[in-house]
Design a protein that fits this description.
It contains six helices and three strands; from the N terminus they run ααβαβααβα. By secondary structure, the protein is mainly alpha-helical. The protein has two domains: about 50 residues, no CATH class; about 90 residues, Aspartate Aminotransferase, domain 1 (Alpha-Beta Complex), CATH 3.90.1150.
Length: about 140
């Protein structure tokens, strides 16, 4: 199937996922920055779930694992972004080709997302913001 663009691909994927009649109560859509975000946004909007990918900038002094540890300690769930090249099936099929894709490798080492779902209350979001501010105040 050929897609018009990434948004079109996301719409098609979302429509197929809807047919599966999944329980989406605590579902989060993870996206890899650049092309993957456009697909994920369409999926998230159609399914009514959220997307919160985060990638630490290249020149940042922030260490991803320190931030993740801090967030987890404050009861904010996190997960690593995992580019396709890091998936076990891709390694089995193609070998370790991550070195040929420096952007994917960088995202793998610097990306993560925070837990979220459609039932978060304003107070939950305020807590997430407060916790990020607390982390950055300690760094400053």
């Amino acid at each position: 199937m050929i897609f018009n663009d990434r948004f079109h691909a996301g719409k098609i994927l979302a429509q197929r996922l809807l047919k599966l009649k999944l329980n989406l109560k605590n579902t989060t859509v993870a996206a890899i920055p650049r092309g993957g975000v456009a697909v994920a946004v369409e999926v998230a909007e159609t399914l009514g779930v959220s997307v919160y990918p985060l990638v630490i900038k290249k020149d940042s002094k922030i260490k991803r694992d320190r931030l993740i540890y801090f967030l987890e300690k404050e009861n904010i769930e996190t997960r690593y972004l995992m580019p396709l090249l890091s998936q076990p099936i891709y390694k089995k099929l193609f070998g370790n080709i991550e070195e040929n894709y420096p952007v994917a490798k960088w995202i793998d080492k610097n990306g993560f997302y925070i837990g979220c779902h459609q039932e978060l209350k304003r107070s939950d979001l305020d807590y997430v913001i407060y916790t990020f501010e607390k982390f950055f105040q300690k760094k400053g």
